Amino acid sequence: MELLESVLGHTFADRSLLKQALTHPSLGYEMQRTQPDNQRLEFLGDAVLQLVLSEILYLQFTQADEGMLTKVRSQLVSTKALAVIAKQIRLGGFLLMARGEESSGGRERDSTLADALEAVAGAVFLDGGMDAARRMVRCLFMEQIKGLGTSPVEENPKGQLQEHLQAISPQSPSYQILEESGPDHAKSFYAMVTWCGKELGRGLGRSKKEAEVDAARSALASEHLPLILESSKPDQSASEVS
After folding, report:
1. Per-residue model confidence as pLDDT tens digits over 115-156
2. Does domain 157-233 correspond to CATH entry 3.40.50.2300?
3. Distance CA 85, CA 90 (A)
4. What is this structure's pTM?
């Protein structure tokens, strides 16, 4: 507990809150008894992160309009972004979960890690108030916020991917939701993007749109995309002959 508290920049007066934030719902199912888990804290922590990051962005980017601030905040609290931070602080190693969930890769699953980080934010808020939550967010999100520079840059992976593909063919990429899971207040969606019958990437998100954006981002980062684009180019020699 002390190690995690040092990373979070907060020492808990009530450590049961931190334990609950680290308890995956699968543990109660495995033990077949009521077990406090992190779902309620996740709900609270989502709002805490949204508020604190909104305040930081509002004060840092005085010329950005509401739409831009909303997009940047969405990037910072996306499943992928929260999972990256959770992995950096090795949050998965602190989670309490069922053996079956662990054996299926639960400690490294992006959605699980993002949920746990939100739950921890909720626990810090309940234990120490908004000032403690601000300190935790600034501590964990420091690199991401610094990376925004003096003005936020709009990220549009779906648009960028479409530009790459339509330089070769007028056919647009197609997005498909493969799976959705989780309770109604915290669903996770798993999406796939394809083009000309080829799978380009898959992504995870809290909404269908976020999952599609993450799939496009994965496609852009894939080492296979240049090969797919090259193989799909029209045959120049054939066009010259015709």
Report:
1. 999 999 999 999 999 999 999 999 999 888 887 766 565 568
2. no
3. 8
4. 0.68
